[in-house]
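YM 10:42: Carbamoyl phosphate synthase small chain sequence, as discussed on the call
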Amino acid sequence: MTERYLILEDGSAYAGKAFGSLATTTGEIVANSTMNGYQEIISNQIYHNQIIVFTQSSIGNTGLDQNAYESILPSAKGVIVREYENLATDHFKRISLDKYLKQHKIPGIYDVDTREIRHHLQRRGNMKASIVDVADDHAFDQLHATVLTNQQVAQVATPKPFPNPDEGANVVVVDFGLKSGILRELSHRDCNVTVVPWDFSAAQILDLDPDGIVLSTGPGSPANLPTSVLKMITEVQSRAPLFAIGLGHELFALANGAKISQLNVEHHGSNHPIREIITNEIFFAGQEQGYAVDPKSIDHAQLFITYVDLVNGTVQGLRHRDYPAFSVQFSPDGAPGPKDSVGLFDDFMEIMARRRDNNDDRY
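YM 10:58: structure's back
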């Protein structure tokens, strides 16, 4: 097997064996502690320009499922694992994890102590990394010289609107790096969905006559998006029910006067208990979080906190006091899991139904 290296910005290097593409790549390195769903994680656009370190002991051992992709074209920069199995479980036994990564030019390394890498990142914080053939001075010089793009949303979001039709509530999804799990949950509820680009104006969205609006998940910092996005949110939140998720949650907070800070170490996994404040209920959900709402910056005349992470104390949910608008930091669609919070889509459906029944003059 070909030997390859994972090198980190702080000078660390980890040797392993190659699988997937043999490309040389650079990205931000993050560790994911989820124990299942490697396919959903790799194909999630939130990992655009990131090298994913899986702490689960083995991946690839359940093959790939055509119903489990979170995007058609994954944009992760690399996959690091302890062990991998080269199984194909599709109808024609053609697509294994190794072949999938080759198809999308994503390099992988296995036979690496991924839990040690995770502990290293917890100690040292966020940083860049590269997957290379030789861990020499030249490779480190190239790593240090590489500037990662801050235009992640523009690179992964749809450039044109497209429909996901049905006969139920008319929902507009603003795509900041949409994962398919959100569309699946809306489809399960018969929603007639139109997905629009991230830079659509409020007028363009409202022209579609939505019963409700979803602000999707996505990669990168909310600070990298123009203020026109915040203006759009402040205009539409008073006109139609709004449900914001992940990056959408952070943008919703910014649009209502809160501030966002970057976490010293990104949290990716489903092992943090989350508490719903009003009920005191504890549940678990998938989290892919590099940024958090500063609780001290929240204007409580406009927003109140609905969910908190019991491990790191971060704000995990907000609700507007005056408008039918709410948000969550975590992934309620449950792809790859857990499914504890999928009922939030039912809450969104109920809010839309109440608005329709009341025939409110929201437009």
